[in-house]
C-alpha cells in the first residue's frame, strides 16, 4: 500500500523541482497582498509576463505617481503587462499601518494592480525580490524606483524616482518587455 504513495511523492517532488527550474530567480517567492490574507505567488502570477515593479511610499513627494502607474497598467494590461507595487518604510515615508497604506493606494489613487504588504527593500534585510532586482540592476535609492522586467524574469531597465510613469524611455522599456512575450 505504501508503494503508490511513494510514487506519488516522488512525482510531486519532480514536478516541484521542475517548476522551480522554470521560474526565474527574480520571481521565486511569495508576498502577502496589502490588507489581505491572500498571497501573491510571484512565479505563478508573473512568470512569462512583462512586469513593472515599483517600491512605493504613502507620504513621499512622488506618491502622486500612483496615478500614472495606474494609467500605465490600464494602457498595457491588455498586452500582458503586470504592475506590482511594494510599499516600504526603508526611506521613512510609509504609513504606520496597512490600513492607511491601502487607503492611499486604493481610495486616493484608485490603484487596481497588485500591492503587497510593506516590505524591506534595501540592505541585508531586503526581501529576495529586491535583492535580485538590485543584483540585476541597482538597489532602490529612494521611493518609486521602477524596474521593468521582461517575460523571462530579467530586468531590462530601471528608472529612478524622478522618472514619471509616462516618460518615453520608460514606455519604450515597457514595450520592449511586452515584445519579449513572443
UniProtKB/TrEMBL annotation:
PROSITE patterns: GLUTATHIONE_PEROXID_1 (PS00460), GLUTATHIONE_PEROXID_3 (PS51355), THIOREDOXIN_2 (PS51352). GO terms for biological process: cellular response to oxidative stress. The active site is at 60. Residues 12-179 form the Thioredoxin domain. Residues 1-20 form the signal peptide. The keyword Oxidoreductase applies. Keywords: Oxidoreductase, Peroxidase, Signal. Belongs to the glutathione peroxidase family. This is Glutathione peroxidase. It comes from Pseudomonas xionganensis. The lineage of its organism: Bacteria, Pseudomonadati, Pseudomonadota, Gammaproteobacteria, Pseudomonadales.
Amino acid at each position: 500500500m505504501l508503494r503508490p504513495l511513494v510514487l506519488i511523492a516522488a512525482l510531486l517532488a519532480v514536478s516541484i523541482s521542475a517548476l522551480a527550474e522554470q521560474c526565474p530567480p527574480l520571481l521565486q517567492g511569495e508576498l502577502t497582498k496589502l490588507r489581505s490574507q491572500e498571497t501573491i505567488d510571484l512565479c505563478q502570477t508573473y512568470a512569462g509576463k512583462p512586469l513593472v515593479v515599483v517600491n512605493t511610499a504613502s507620504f513621499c513627494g512622488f506618491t502622486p505617481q500612483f496615478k500614472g502607474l495606474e494609467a500605465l497598467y490600464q494602457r498595457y494590461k491588455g498586452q500582458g503587462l503586470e504592475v506590482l507595487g511594494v510599499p516600504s518604510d526603508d526611506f521613512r515615508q510609509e504609513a504606520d499601518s496597512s490600513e492607511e497604506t491601502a487607503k492611499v493606494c486604493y481610495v486616493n489613487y484608485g490603484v487596481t494592480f497588485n500591492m503587497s504588504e510593506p516590505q524591506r527593500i534595501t540592505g541585508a534585510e531586503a526581501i529576495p525580490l529586491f535583492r535580485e532586482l538590485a543584483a540585476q540592476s541597482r538597489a532602490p535609492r529612494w521611493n518609486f524606483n521602477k524596474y521593468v522586467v521582461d517575460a523571462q524574469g530579467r530586468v531590462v531597465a530601471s528608472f529612478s524616482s524622478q522618472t514619471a510613469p509616462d516618460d518615453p524611455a520608460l514606455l519604450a522599456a515597457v514595450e520592449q518587455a511586452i515584445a519579449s512575450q513572443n
